Structures
1.
Amino acid sequence: MSDWYQQSENEVLEKFHVTKDGHTSEMAAELLEKKGENVLEGGKKKSTLQVFLSQFADLLVIILIIAAGISMFTGNQESTLVIVAVIILNAILGTVQHKKAEKSLDSLKSLSSPTAKVMRDGQKLEIPSKDVVPGDILLLEAGDLVVADGRILNSYSLQVNESSLTGESTSVDKSEMVIEGEVPLADRVNMVYSSSLVTYGRGVVVVTGTGMETEIGKIATLMNATKEKKTPLQVSLDQFSSKLAMVIMIICGIVFALSIYRKMPILDSLMFAVALAVAAIPEALSSIVTIVQAMGTQKMAREHAIIKELKAVESLGCVSVICSDKTGTLTQNKMTVQDVYVDGQVLRPDDIDIRNQLHRYLLYDAILTNDSTIVDGKGIGDPTEYSLVEMARKIDLREDIIRDMMPRLEEIPFDSDRKLMSTKYRLHGVPTLLTKGALDVLLDRTTRIRTSKGIRPMSDEDRKQILDQNLKFSENGLRVLAFAYREVEEDETISLESESDYIFIGLISMIDPPREESTAAVADAKRAGIRPVMITGDHKITATAIAKQIGIFEEGDLAVTGPELDAMSDEELDSKIRRISVYARVSPENKIRIVDAWQRLGHVVSMTGDGVNDAPALKKADIGVAMGITGTEVSKDAASMILTDDNFATIIKAVANGRNVYRNIKNAIQFLLSGNMAGILGVLYTSVMGLPIPFAPVHLLFINLLTDSLPAIAIGMEPAEKDLLAEAPRDPKEGILTKKFMTDILVQGALIAVVTMAAFHMGLNAGGGALASTMAFATLTSARLFHGFNCRSKHSIFRIGFRKNWYSLGAFAAGMILLNLVLFVPVLKRLFLVSALTAAQWGSIFLLAVIPTVIIQIVKIIREH
């Protein structure tokens, strides 16, 4: 039952057959047996072995296993060990990441308070929170964590912070009133919810829901039901793997059949097919993609974005919608006094003059009718109240000194029904009642107004001016408090009846201001083709005002509340969603629905959040972004990325990094595949022409696993180019293997194959098959090392420069050293089946190897001009 807030105290108590003295011990034990413990349950988990084995159900891994089998079959144990080591390492990394993700529900469970104060058998007891049952009478005090959902029976100035569930940063005043009609969770002031925190006062509550039947339990259920999605790169690599496997099998079959047809011995025919398969399989691809992503995560960590899952890095590159929380991400998560209205004027806080008696009375009211303070620069108490104390501190007025000078004589605490707080002090020797509260309530109790010219009766015109100013503040998303006072008799004991016949002093408006960098970050997002959307638990007017200030909300945009969203059909939401910039008063289900709607329209969605309530949406989004400072452990565990500075601008930096990582991965793949294409074309050419096999499988494994890996990693380290954020997000449906990409691979592979086969023929003419194979191997290796410079960027090497990426020069040098060790060290010469080379032959190899790079660079220069 979810409508407890619409029922009276007696109705709720009757439903649970309980009084305010609580359950009997026997009834509580019976209910605990029936309902189960007050804990959250997780979904059925896979064992570590199951997770580990599932890592091998990937086509790229299967291709690597085939490569290992082939290299073992051809007697290359060293190569087999390298490939097997790579496969196992990848599986271990995948298992560790999966197990980390499963911690999210464990963190949800750990939110439960270890103990709770309840009434049992008419006595106050402290029991483990897991033993709380529906119908228990829960006793709450300031500082308590609420351990179950409940309907309030008595509220004694009870205030609860529900930010982990609603996203609303300020504490909510609670009461026992019955609420008419349906209202969102954030407005159910007669209810408390599990995982929220009591910040002020005390209350008596009847428990209405425990465990999975609480609001936080519903969130846990949503998290269990939310499945993780594959990233666009994973989809592309899966498609590539399946296509590559099919092509390799077909071509190997054709080559094997052709060799048999030409009466070649079966072993020689098999060796041709094996050489072709090894040439085609990019053994290092999986490792290099992982390494490049890992390098990207390290760079992002230095820029305050911790990536939990490597696969999330490239997904950032195609984010087209960022759904951001307001409080703390776009704003400073700190209530701050914005404007002060006094003596008919709007002043900035800095303009208040302590020497002006009217201003001084307003300051006295603000810091004396106030229970908060600032200790070591940190506000303690209600955020709204300590924003008033901070305002006073800015003009060198310390609340602790004023309070010591003027002790509080009496008080009437804040009450959500009255919406007022009153305190009695002696100001300048005169007993005075100071009151702050909601303008609509206080203005009705005010008969006079104080101006710089003195105190006079309040006129209708005065009231109109004050109300007009309040409306202006409200339209700008400001929260407004009104201040008034009246002098009282020395012996008068203040009561609720005392709160009348006030003298109006002024208004103070507050806001959680936008971060300074938010406006620029939103502008960068829009320039990058990304749609920023604000999702908040705050009121629509406040949210819209902030969204306008930072550029999220523009002319013609829409703002909707959670209940308005609930009333929309999916079709209506799909038709309006591109115009909706602000969602206010939202529930966890609303957040998931918003993410789902954008994903339905083909967008890659990033969602930010810090509360328990955000966890399901963070998991549902393509990139879930949690706050590192204010975020709960649940949100951090559910997210793919954690911001250590809780800053929206960091997301945009991370998107730029994500785009660069994807571009570098794509360039590395182009480098690997174009080199492999040269090997494939070489093997096909010699097979068709009836020539000896040009490469031993060990040659191709040496190239693929050693000399190719270093340039590919260096390409992955290429810094971002300036035009990166000016481009639109890439289409996640567009695979890596586009027509242009495949054409470039084929053309570049053909150029390298031509010079490799030229060297092969030179070797055949000079000394037979062994020398021909050595020259082809050396030329292919060298040409691929030079080709690493071509694949750094779509621009020419002269435009991007050598010095921007020293790793590429280091990789080229290391590759050349490895090649020369194989060619000239006797032990390695025998191991890698190479013949001795003359200086002239080595010079020919070098000249042939550099030709493809010269041609490709000339074409790039022509395109640029």
2.
Amino acid sequence: MHSPNGDLYHRERETALLREAVDELALGRPTVATVHGTRGIGKSALLNSIPGMLPPHTLVLRARCHPSESQFPYSMVSQLFDPVLGGAVGGDVPVPGPEQEGRPTHEALLTLLRATRSLAVDRPVAILVDDLIYADEPSLRWFSYIARRLDDLPVLLVATLPASAAAQVTDELGPLPYLLRLWPEPLCETCTTELVDRAFDSPVDQELAALCHTLAHGNPLVLHDLVTRLRRTHVPPGAPDPDQVLPIGSQALSETVLAWLDEDDPAASELLTQLAVLGPDTDPAVCGALSQRGEVHEQQAREALVRAGLLEAGPAARFAHCAVRPAVLARVSAHERLELHGRAAAVLARLGAPARQTAEHLLKAGCGWGLDVLRGAGAQAAGVGDHESAARYLRRALALLDESGDGADEDAQERAESFLDLTVRLGAVELHRDLDACVRQASAAADSPLGPVRRAEALARLASPALVARIEGAQPFVRVCGELAALAAPPREHLLRLTAQSLLTGHRSGLRRAARLAAGVPWDTPALSFGGALAAAAAASGRFGTARRMAQRVAAGPAGAADGAAPATTAGLVGAALALTWTGDLGVAAVLADRLISTARAADDLASVLLGHLICGEIHHRRGEATAALADAETALRLARRLGTSALACAAVSSAARALVVLGKVGEAAALLADEPSAGDAHPFIKALSLQAHGTVAAARGRHAEAVGLFLDCGHRLALRGITNPACVTWRAQAAQSYLALGEVSAAETILDGAPQEPAGPARSTAPAPERTLLSPAELRVAGLVVRGCSSLEVAEKLFLSKRTVDTHLGRIYRKLGIHSRHELAGALGEEVEVLV
């Protein structure tokens, strides 16, 4: 614990040394003392404490130097001697002429020495000079001259000097036996706490005291200014708000330490500004190049900042406190910042710095150059998974390309190539963070003027099942796939990938040619992607054999292929898992879905992880595992919101709502659907899922008429897209239950009769009646409705078939029964008419 000495804290050692010098003065012996230190460290306070230590009747001569008086000869000497000699010194001392360049003559120095001796004959003399460094040249020469000639005089000569002048004074005075050098130290934490307590007249919060100590770096003047500001703004000492204290601390630093730095060490001030604007981790070589002083001067400036308490010591240039950087930045204008960032970008590019480092300064400066740098920075950021930064770099690169305008005709091709390359790069990045933005980039790539092959190559890099969740996302792939399929010799890989995307949307552009190309090499990555999509399309249309065969091929992957075959892609796994789910093979589908999630996570493909959780949730729902289904749906919903995809968020909400209804939480399900994002231009299958979920909630609340309408709308949307497999969305059974709840038994039977044959499970034990063996179940359903008087269009609407399909069934029925019109149908069926009716 340090005890105070008057108003001085932490100055016991310096005070003791000064007392020893005063004792020497009382004994008639001289002392020359210099007090060195930074501004505000307390040099003047020590100087002002000396008169109170002096013996009685000591003559005290005082002077305070100032830069504004440094051009006036003998201004410091006049301050010292005029009070006691009445201006005689100024009159007796000859003023140097112009030919002497302001240097005092030896005669003048001797006169001043005699005057000092005459004053010290009868009593001790204490000469106290504050800020000697600002004294005029003749006075400085006098100070050095007289300090070396005090051997037999009772004179105490004390001067305060900045730390930078210590070496200069040492060289001038030499090894004087009576020379004393004092270096006041920064205040310790205990002294700081005592000073702050004293200023607030009460104990302060320890965190506030520690903050004051860190900001002031033990500098008493800075500490006094800071505490004064805190008291002026009524900061409570017991429970201060850090958000209130830090701006005050920044302002105090700006008006004290930083202002001093501007005056005393411009190089250090410039370096501090560079570190604040460019970042404390800026390479020293860059700072040296920016200041044009070199690394040696930069290192000296860095050491000065450490001494000032603005930077931490060590190889890394970290600010000593979080308030330092805001204080520096507050002194830098916006124009200066932009200029500094622009210069830093140019220096970094010239030095071959990492592209990301250069790109950050390009973005902040708004420079109109650096297209290649931004492209490289985007690749670097994407490589380490920083997709947010990668998107910023690539968007700026595209903006630069747009700003460059239309050049000469010979540059048009190059600009189009650059635009397409940057668009695809940005789309690949957005695939990890914003799927709707990726859709926009895919549309831009599909509009490229570079031809179908180049467009297909670009879109193949963006192919992901997650993008076709929106119609807008599917259109570019379908359009370019059609263009590619029309070519005489389309590239195999691109055609397979784009055909896979088209199949997931229900389009069959290039299907036959893609199937032939995939059969040639069935185990590479494009073929497996195509195979998964083909399996899902086959399962949706009720071709269960094809669906299972293709899905099993994708699931087998390289295990059933030759050496060097590609592993199953995430796109292939999505299609295969959906196909197996819709054909009833839930066990293998679950394995594939888990494999999809693990593969996608390893590839940082959150979109495929999202799809994997949706499929897992569907599998759990079909197994009756509502809790697990809800967990998967909630995970999928979080990922959908993170990826900014409203369509897949709608699918996740629908899945969660179904699970909540099974768990008896109908109210929560209704609330979740009420906040459901709009399906918008979502894939018809997702819209059907949403309608099913709303119908499920309506039925659980007893609103069966509303539920029936929602279920029938669901089936209508599926039928329009050719999704005839009832296992895709089990709306028929739910509609039948709602019909039964309404008492409409015949309607319930009609809905169930309209369902195509179930895909999986053992064969039904009930054998068809002998009378029905001639016609297939589908034909019997059509015939029954026709006998009841329904037209072909009405039959198509009731069975959710196309009118063309109904007419095809009728043609087969007529041929099998040997009739030619629907009027003969009732008679040809005989007793079966009553059963059908």
3.
Amino acid sequence: MHIPIVATYRLQFRNGMTFYRAAEIIPYLKQLGISHLYASPIFSAETGSTHGYDVVDHNEIDPAIGGIDGFRRLHRALRSHDMGLILDIVPNHMAASLENRWWRSVVERGKASPFAGHFDIDWGRKLTLPRLGRPYREALEAGELRIEADAKESCLALGYFDSKLPLLPASYRLIAERLEGDVATALRDVALIGERPERDADFHDAVGVLLARDNHVLAESLDALSRELGLIDDLHKQQPWELIYWRDARRNLSYRRFFEVTGLVGVRVEDGQVFADVHRLALSLVAEGLVNGLRIDHVDGLACPTSYLRKLRQEVGPDIPVFVEKILAEGEELPGEWPISGTTGYEFIPTVADLLADVDGLAELVRDYERFIGRHVDLDAETREAKRLILRRNFEGELAALVRLAQEIRQRAEVQQAGDDDILNSIAEIIVGFDVYRTYAEPGRWTGRDEIELDRATASALASGRADPELIAFIKAMLSGAGDEDATTFFIRFQQLTGPVMAKAVEDTLYYRVNPFIADNEVGCSPGSARGGVRQFHRRMASWVKGRSGMLATATHDTKRGEDARARLYSLTCAPSVWADSVGRWAKINEENRRALPGGFAPEPDVEWLLYQSLAGVWPPLLRIEDEHGLAELSGRFLPYVEKALREAKLRTDWLDADEAYEKGVLSYAMALLEPANRTFLEDFAATLRPFVEAGSINSITQTLVKLTAAGIPDFYQGSEGLDFSLVDPDNRRPVNFANLERRLNQQQAAPGCEYTLVDGSFKQWMISRALACRRENETLFARGAYRPVEIVGSESNRFTAFLRELDDHAALVVVQRPAFGRESDGLRSTFLLLPERYDGGTFEGILTGTSFQGQTSLPIGIPLGGLPTALALARLR
């Protein structure tokens, strides 16, 4: 059954959300106006997974969230309400966990495993397993490794604390040599069976029989043998894998990771058999009509995204929507050859910022920030330094592998040899020079778009003065993808590396280092860069009408802060001097809580600015400073964010080498901000924040109505139809009180539209339900209708923005408000919308006000608003 996509609602399964719980809230989502549930990954993940991206079995629906029976229950609930399901699938990686049967087979049998080719592993060396808490030799001599019988998995294993790593079947012979009697004979017999991979099931059955029969005797024998360090070492050497210290993974890993997460191993879906094995269940759910659309996680990680998407389209047919998780850089467009519906909508966030962030105020805020921290910030230089850091430290191994490949290719080409460092510098500077996440060329096939990006990156590398021109030319030639297997591997690995470097350097480093305006420290945006303003907003909105029907997102599980927090922070640009003066005042009030450390004060000015701005974004609008419980609850959420922000910045502490004294100093400062005893600060902070809260509430309503009426698919992250003042994950995955949301919506449905409150989220939720009902009834208008900006004149013209969506004789008028910071205005009667002549005398139906009005070429703006902060009205013209 084809169900038009009116709006999607992202639901995070796990953390208490099961299929059965989801089925219970379907009536509420239908009442809200949602057409499609947009589910986080549902396939079996590691035990205790909180997100589902650590898949262990692509062909099983996770029993932890209800299994196949629960999934069918959810489908019935959706079907009974004429709703569909969009499923998030994860083709790029799986959990490098022994719960993953494919990975367990690879660990046990190495290259002989039938799944050895399913993972992106360098089989020119042993499989590295970064599980040790210290270097291997130290762990061995400390007696931390032992031989164990694993009755659950019917195998012998090398144990390391809670890990039981299956031994190569041939290793059983080595153990048998140290034993006598029937047990030794039995071990030799099962080793003989195990040496034939096609008899894997017989092998494990035989080991199971042995363990059931002789487990006690064998356990005592293995315990004694575990004290023979030489035997343990010999066993370790015999395996197709080697245990390494977890800190060494960044420079010594034999498999491709998801970003820098060693617990997630890359999957080779570019191979036809692997594609089939990974997608078998997902495609069957689509074919059965249980899934109505797919979201592709981390498409940039795939070896050949274009070929993958074409293959997927061939499998699902022409009518199933496919969305890709893809972050577009400024001015970047999706490859036109991708057979997809669009992206998951990150690019909508900077579009909203263009509308709601004051251009001049942002520039002033950046200057105030630089004065406060005592230095000028060169954003381009900061970005490049962050990339260099990430490349040479976090992705040291991936970069070294490219250098090795380049050297091998140069040797065969019989060109003049170059030093490893020279090649490394040249490769690194090209990667640093990319302004986009990656190119999408395939071996021997470059598009003009990708060639332009490569030319820009190589030109940047040359301009840096850090790279050799001859090597730059050589690397660029290698990136043609033509040539032998090594050249193709270099070409693919290079493209798979630029995206993770950009993500970790910008999203997870720069966004915590450069903090003048943290609403812009968000996926798809750029910290403190000049905004394009209302004109740029209109250009973007108009361009989407001609594009794909992608999602429009204002919050996701990956955004750095909730959509209402960001909306409030936009208002800082309306009064930058008020904000800057306040930060200076608060820093003096809390000066006694700063700590002098050898590396400088904790916190330093830049972190102070970040702390106050972060707190301003998430401060609950109804929180009173007398509410000690509320302050404690906020502190409990705020402090983990602060710790994460410090470590992600990688300046004075980080995840690899935490500076405990520095972290303790900053955290104690942050904690003191929310102590009830700090009343002088709290009173000042709350009073200063009040007009920003009010302005942010207006911004939130504007942001939401624009999303509801733009070309594309409005997407709502769980709970964001109310107030979303969340911080970065895991804070944004907290459980949602759906009972309260449903109860409030029912109350709002019965209330007159003019009786609204902004600060509790009720008006936002009610407006969503009204606008989605309108959008559902006028699907074609909002999906394909032209976009026309409406000129506004008069005393309050800068305070509003308006546009029309037009299709034949059908139109929607949208009027949204920009914040009038800290003041009330009575100038609506002297502010006018200049409508085209065809609307003169036409009748508009107010969707939010419930009243009608006549169109005029010069329409007083207060008429469509009808006392509300926004307006949505429909017109049918003769």
